[in-house]
Amino acid sequence: MKLNAPLFYLLLLFPSLLFSQKKTAELTGFYSDGMSQFSRTDLQLNEDGSFRIKRPLLDVDAYMERSESTGRWTSTGNKIILNPHLKPRKQEIWMEEKVIPGQDSISIQVHYNRKLYENEQLVEEGPYPFKRMTIYVNKRQKRYNLLRQYEQRICGHAPWIKNQTIVDSTNTFFLPKTTINKLGVMTYGFTEYKELPVRNSDTNHFDIYIVQPIDKERMPRSKEVIIKGQKAFYYEHNGKVITSGLLCTPLIRRR
């Protein structure tokens, strides 16, 4: 019996379609890194290509508050991309140097600006008070944690915040006069320290400018998730998903 062309190609595609459906079923499910209200991140991957995620916010507005959002996901092998159609937003950071005559100390001032987006449209832009920022001088061991007020441990297992430096609305702090070769900055939205080299060794005042883009919906943007068996690796370090080591905390498939 002679098969017509459309039917012939359909028969060729049928096994690949079955394989694709099977692979999708292996990835879908509910993943969580905790139980009930104690979980940090809950991720539901549905077979229709949609997802729902609840996660803690680590940004300038709502530190450790939980946010819920939905979207679409795609996969290549065991790698999931949440909202692949949304490009990640990039933070901006740069530094300007000044020599202030007669100043016998080093002053560092942070100019922190937030760009707020809603429905992919910029709706607000301007100065914003950050809650916490870490700046190191020359080497990472010499860190200063900038805060609005002193923080104490609320749990015996929580790390103590060393070198707490309280700043007011000017975001300025002072150091004894010394030679500075570079400054490093870590704050919400950064996956690693941003290093700022110093051009003039006589500089005694530094202006650090940061522009932080925030989506009001807090949805993931081209977020990579790696699935291995019953585990979904979601958290990142230095911009890469952690799949092993002491920092690895996978989401476990619950159903």
Give an account of the 3D structure.
By secondary structure, the chain is mostly beta strands. It has one helix and 20 strands. It has one helix spanning 5-27, and strands at 29-32, 42-45, 50-56, 66-76, 79-82, 92-98, 105-118, 121-127, 132-137, 143-147, 164-166, 172-176, 182-186, 194-197, 205-215, 223-228, 231-233, 236-237, 240-241, 251-253. The strands form four sheets. It has an eight-stranded antiparallel barrel with strand order 1-2-3-4-5-16-17-20. Strands 6, 7, 8, 12 and 15 form a five-stranded mixed sheet that branches.
Largest sheet: 8 strands, antiparallel, barrel
The helix/strand series, from N terminus to C terminus, equals HEEEEEEEEEEEEEEEEEEEE
End-to-end Cα distance: 47 Å
Query: What order do the strands of the largest sheet run in, or round the barrel if closed?
Result: 1-2-3-4-5-16-17-20
Write down the Rg. 24 Å
Give the structural class: mainly beta
Averaged pLDDT, please?
85
Poorly predicted runs: 16-20
Helix content: under 10%
How many runs of DSSP E, i.e. beta strands? 20
The general outline is: elongated
Count of helical stretches:
1
Beta fraction:
35-45%
Characteristic terms for this protein:
mainly beta; 1 helix; eight-stranded antiparallel β-barrel; 255 residues
Give a brief description.
The protein is mostly beta strands and 255 residues long. The chain has one helix and 20 strands.
